[in-house]
Amino acid sequence: MSRTGSLYIDKDTVFHNIDGSIKLLLWICWTAFIFMFMDIRIFIFMTLIAFLC
Amino acid sequence: MLKIAKIPFSTIKPLLIFIIIFTLFNSALLLIVTPEYGSQITGKYTVILKLYGFKLTAETLFYAFTLSLKYISLLPVTLLFIFTTNPSEFASSLNRLGVSYKIAYSISIALRYIPDVKDEMTNIINAQEARGVAFKKGDAGLLKRLKNYLSILLPLLISSLQRIEVISNAMDLRGFGKHKTRTWYTRKPLKSADYIFIIVSISLVLIGIYLKNTYFTKFFCLSLK
Fold first, then answer.
1. Tell me, what's the pLDDT at A3?
2. How many contacts (CB atoms, under 8 Å) link A and B?
3. How many domains does chain A have?
4. If you average pLDDT over residues B23-39, what whole number do you get?
5. Which residue windows are transmembrane per the record (chain B) (predicted)?
6. Number of domains in chain B
7. B200 close to A (CB below 8 A)
């Protein structure tokens, strides 16, 4: 946990350099995508992408 | 994504455990309240547990498992957002989208003070432990420890309200809200990577709509027979 006063971890990666609102858009779209389905194959695929990539 | 963002697993492990416990609890409640819901959706009835009037079907169990995995699949992106977004930069980027700077700043403050509230909770627990209140395993039974944890809520609430008062006074003294617009110290222009992620995000939704209408139209349930 950052002592600057947030959960933010300061590193130089692609995700750290993306604008906050774009990450919010990605989160909204990811959530919308997940909530469209009730299929375990989709969820396993998305979880693996997110955790292993 | 979490690997690319270089977020250490030790950081996300407690949150992951919390979410897994939450989803298990959620699934257990679902199985108790609606033990035949999965069967109602699929039309198949494979009873795996029969206890007095209570009948649990395999389809409902699979439905609960699918639902749990649905929640877990939302976790990585949420963690990615929390751990890679600087609250100040996020507030300025929200303001650029047209969100009022007062709302943007309140979101920024909420993100920024989560660790402070956590520290405050640790301090209260330490203070209570010094007075002989048991919080650790072995010092008291589970129910007693849970009751002790409830007793920290009131001091935590009061200290949070005091913190809010200090912050709001500081903001008032600096003239926060006097003008309709404000400048931001951490405002950055959008780069090519940002545009790529906009395209990726919108494509994800479009692909989802396509898949929903073609291949993954209904609840998928593994055939158990």
1. 47
2. 174
3. 1
4. 86
5. 12-33, 61-82, 192-211
6. 1
7. yes
Q: What is the pLDDT of residue B224?
A: 55
Contacts of B99 (CB under 8 A, 6+ apart): none
Q: Is residue A40 part of a domain?
A: yes
Percent of chain B with pLDDT strictly greater than 70: 99
A6 lies in some domain: no
* Residue B122, domain extent: 87-185
Residue of B113, B201, B222 with shortest CB distance to A26 = B201
- How high is the pLDDT of residue B179? 83
Q: Residue A7: inside a domain, yes or no?
A: no
* Per-residue pLDDT tens over the stretch B101-112: 888 888 888 877
In a domain, B77, yes or no: no
Decide if A46 contacts B72 (C-beta within 8 A). Answer: no
Query: Exposure of B20 by Cβ count < 10 A (0-12 exposed, 13-18 middle, 19+ buried)?
Result: middle
Arithmetic mean of pLDDT over chain B = 85
Q: What is the pLDDT of residue B104?
A: 85
Tell whether B220 lies on the interface with A, counting CB pairs under 8 A: yes
**Domain range for residue A19?**
14-52
Let me know if residue A38 belongs to a domain.
yes
